[in-house]
Structure formats: structure tokens, C-alpha cells
Amino acid sequence: MRILVLNPNTTASMTASIRAIAEASASPGTEIVATEPLWGPESIEGHFEGYLSAAAVLDRLATYDEPFDALVMAGFGEPGREGRRNSSTYRSSTSPSPPPSWP
């Protein structure tokens, strides 16, 4: 299984910490791939940064070219979650379209 872990801010050191924790917690044979948006806030301190981050997260997901089986949005409040759920573009290595139960 390949899990994409997405840090909603652009701080690479935070992404590295998130990756390390995810790898330590993953089952054997699980591949963890961690990334962050290509643009957006370095830290999410309030609503303004949260809105910017949501757009940046959706942009990163739209431009991410590698297959993945699951997505973990690794940030408080999961900026971009609602937009991702409503997205008509759902990609993973196992399903090119949303599963029937997708909200």
C-alpha cells in the first residue's frame, strides 16, 4: 500500500517530521510518501492561512503525478478536505474514479 501524507503548510522540516512519524507507525510493507503544497503559508495560524492552504492543497493534489492508495491530510482542520471530497477528479492507483460511497 502506498499512502500519500499531505502536510497542508509549506514547511519542509514539518513534512519531514510528519513523514518520520508516519513511517514509524505504518504496517510493514506500507510505503509512506509525504509532500506539501508547492505554494501557500508556511504556518496556518488562523482562517486566512487556512483558506490559502486549502487552495494550495487542492492544487498540489491536482498536480501530483504518482499513484497512491490512500490520502492522509496531516493538518489540524484538514484544509482542503471539503474541496477534495467534492472534486470530480479522484485519482489513486486502485481507483480512477470515486468509489460508490464517496460523499
From TrEMBL:
Gene Ontology MF terms in the entry: amino-acid racemase activity
Ranges for region Disordered: 74-103
Transmembrane regions: none
InterPro entries: Asp/Glu/hydantoin_racemase, Hydantoin_racemase-like, Iso_Racemase_Enz_sf
PANTHER family, per database record: PROTEIN DCG1 (PTHR28047)
Family the UniProt entry places it in: Belongs to the HyuE racemase family.
Name of protein: Asp/Glu/hydantoin racemase
Species of provenance: Streptomyces violaceusniger
